[in-house]
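Thread amino acids onto this structure.
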């Protein structure tokens, strides 16, 4: 029931204002019904033409679906019915380039900002056709297929289907050979798939290391894109082959150190995780490679103001980077001066002493925890 939003205006408000206050009048309701009837008729007409024998009629109908889907969120919901979606998917393996392109664009626009439509498209069997386009499609079709996989993978229920479809290695190929937009879309799609909780051991082909490090080097370290890229690099650092490729890639460690210093909290957390994985598994080789790029100030800063996981990782990496030989060991006084300088930058000169003391205590505590863990591991063996 419509209510007067201004009860003090009296029992007989102006009729001209009451008609605007009420959300539904008989005339408005009739107009809405006519609009719904017209839209239903349009959907039925497009569905009929999408199933026509004439290919040019199907292509034109797909282009119209794209146009209507772009118009509004309500249109996207109205046109995402089985009689429209299934013929569009059936056009994806067509030998005709225009038919494939029109169908891809229509499906993309139906899926954008509509989780239900994304799920309908995947359940209707689009993924195998998209994978085939990633594998064999010409440049613009591969780019559109990448964008479609990205869009569909934004819906969590779709990720297991896509991740197990064979799309991952093909997306990695896009990282190397695609356009800039294609590579950005591939990174985001891979990131979406890597966060699927239903896949316990998500793995990436090691061929992703070089293009990811290159993209990270060229990106703004505090961007969301850098967060996704470093997250994928941390996954790659779990394997020996991935670690070797990261440590041997020219400028790769420097890029990660720069990310620790300039990146967002998440980027820094992932980047220090990569370096920690390198140092944990090959300390003798990687320690010098990492130290050469000057990571200490960034790591100390991270111990003071990073995420909880980043602070712990930074402490652990700092302990691994310490030289065990008495001859080369950094003097305690020199370390205190460096920590004090970092603390001044974080909390200002007034609180610097207290912050520096806390950082040194945390480093000592983490060092004891690591030593205890190592002793326990030796005892278990």
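Threaded sequence (381 positions):
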């Amino acid at each position: 029931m419509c209510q007067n939003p201004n009860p003090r205006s009296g029992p007989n408000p102006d009729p001209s204002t009451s008609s605007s206050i009420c959300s539904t009048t008989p005339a408005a309701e009739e107009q809405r019904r006519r609009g719904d009837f017209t839209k239903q008729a349009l959907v039925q007409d497009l569905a009929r033409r999408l199933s026509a024998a004439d290919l040019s009629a199907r292509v034109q109908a797909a282009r119209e679906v794209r146009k209507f889907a772009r118009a509004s969120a309500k249109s996207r919901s109205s046109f995402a019915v089985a009689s429209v979606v299934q013929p569009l998917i059936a056009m994806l393996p067509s030998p005709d380039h225009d038919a494939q392109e029109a169908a891809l664009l229509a499906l993309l626009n139906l899926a954008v900002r509509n989780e239900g439509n994304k799920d309908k498209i995947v359940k209707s069997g689009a993924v195998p056709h998209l994978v085939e386009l990633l594998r064999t499609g010409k440049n613009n079709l591969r780019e559109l297929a990448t964008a479609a996989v990205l869009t569909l993978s934004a819906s969590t229920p779709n990720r297991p289907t896509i991740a197990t479809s064979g799309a991952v290695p093909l997306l990695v190929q896009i990282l190397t050979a695609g356009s800039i937009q294609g590579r950005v879309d591939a990174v985001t799609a891979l990131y979406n798939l890597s966060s699927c909780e239903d896949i316990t051991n998500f793995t990436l082909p090691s061929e992703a290391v070089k293009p990811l490090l290159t993209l990270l080097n060229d990106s703004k370290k505090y961007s969301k894109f850098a967060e996704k890229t470093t997250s994928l690099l941390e996954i790659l650092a779990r394997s020996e082959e991935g670690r070797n490729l990261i440590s041997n890639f020219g400028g790769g460690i420097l890029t990660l150190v720069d990310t620790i210093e300039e990146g967002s909290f998440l980027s820094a957390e992932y980047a220090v995780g990569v370096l920690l994985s390198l140092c944990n598994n090959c300390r003798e080789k990687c320690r010098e490679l990492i130290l050469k790029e000057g990571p200490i100030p960034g790591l100390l800063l991270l111990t003071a103001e990073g995420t909880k996981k980043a602070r712990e990782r930074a402490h652990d990496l700092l302990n691994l980077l310490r030289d065990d030989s008495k001859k080369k060991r950094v003097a305690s006084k020199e370390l205190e001066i460096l920590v004090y300088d970092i603390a001044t930058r974080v909390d200002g000169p007034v609180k610097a002493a207290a912050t520096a003391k806390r950082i040194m205590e945390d480093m000592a505590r983490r060092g004891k925890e690591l030593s205890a863990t190592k002793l326990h591991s030796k005892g278990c063996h």
